[in-house]
Structure formats: structure tokens, C-alpha cells
Amino acid sequence: MITKIYRVKGTFVMGDDFHKFVKEYKATSEADIKQKIYERFGSKHGINRNQIKISEITEIAPEDVVDPIVKEIL
Q: Which residues does the UniProt record annotate as the domain Large ribosomal subunit protein eL20 (predicted)?
């Protein structure tokens, strides 16, 4: 399978506050990206899937990556 790079934008709820996020990940499909977002936010922040709203998933070119960890992986 071909691995692509995606930029994901959205919001999540913690307490009474909404927080915006922008994340970049390598994955094989948009479905994989959604799963990674739900798993990582749930693990890190202890929130449920219904508290996470993904508003945009965009495939990006390697030269457009801004996340230093993803850059290092490339």
C-alpha cells in the first residue's frame, strides 16, 4: 500500500471548552487517518470519539509538511 501524508483540521471538547487542532500524519487512507486521530486524542486527552470533530482532511505533498516529527520520518 502507498503511504500518503495528510493534514487534519478539527476541534475537540475538553471540559466546557472547544480546542482547535491541526495534525499531520502518514497513512494509507483517510479512514486510517480518522482512526489515528480518534485513538491518539482519546489516549492523550481521555475523550470519546463524539467529542472530536474532524472538519477537513487534506492530502499534502512532502515539501508542504510543517510537523518536525513527520519531516524527520520522511
A: 4-57
